[in-house]
Amino acid sequence: MRTRNGTPHGRLLVLIGALSGCATAPTSAGGRQELKESVAHALTEMEAEDPGLRPFLERSYGYVVFANVGKGAWIVGGGYGRGIVYQRGAPIGYADITQATLGLQFGGQAFREVLAFESEADLERFTAGRLSLTANASAVILKSGAAASTQYTDGVAVFVKPIGGAMLEAAVGGQQFSYEPQ
């Protein structure tokens, strides 16, 4: 798992990774099948919410789908989720997302997240572990028509669909990713 070691943010990400098992890919065939099914369900649900998402992803060089990212906080917060990475629509590996925040916050929530990559270089930056999203990264909350007007920022577009829960949050943090080929 790649982190910014030595910083409070990096140490929190290491702790979250350790608590989540730190394996990017599911370790069993059943776990891989379950993840595949949850990702397919998440994409179907997100495409029903915004039919423009499918054409956007088809134009993207690659994308990663995190079907369920859980996040919780009491002053210090963290989150974790696992997903599948696609290149030109074909699965190429697994990814996980760890999130760490610090500030005034409490509660818990779950959401789906899709990162779309504009070019081969942008996907390679992700698979090489050189992509992290900061607190000021722009994410599109998925609703009908949102994908049609979405633009890439630094080669990445982020779509989020809340699943449930509630959080009060005035915090600073970011998301880190790891990748494991199939």
What is the straight-line distance between the termini? 17 Å
SS-based class: alpha+beta
Catalogue the unreliable spans.
1-21
The main β sheet shows up as: 5 strands, mixed
Count of the domains? 1
Please give the number of β-strands: 5
Q: What is the gyration radius calculated from CA atoms?
A: 15 Å
Report the total helices.
4
**Helix fraction by DSSP (H/I, runs of at least 4):** 25-40%
Shape: globular
H/E order of the elements? HHHEEHEEE
**What fraction of residues sit in β-strands?**
over 45%
* Average of pLDDT: 79
General description of the model:
- The chain has about 180 residues and is of the alpha+beta class.
- The protein has one domain (about 10-180).
- Helices cover about 25% and strands about 45% of the residues.
- It is built from 4 helices and 5 strands.
- The chain has helices spanning about 10-20, 30-50, 55-60, 120-125, and strands at about 60-85, 90-115, 130-135, 140, 155-180.
- A hairpin with a 2-residue loop joins β1 and β2.
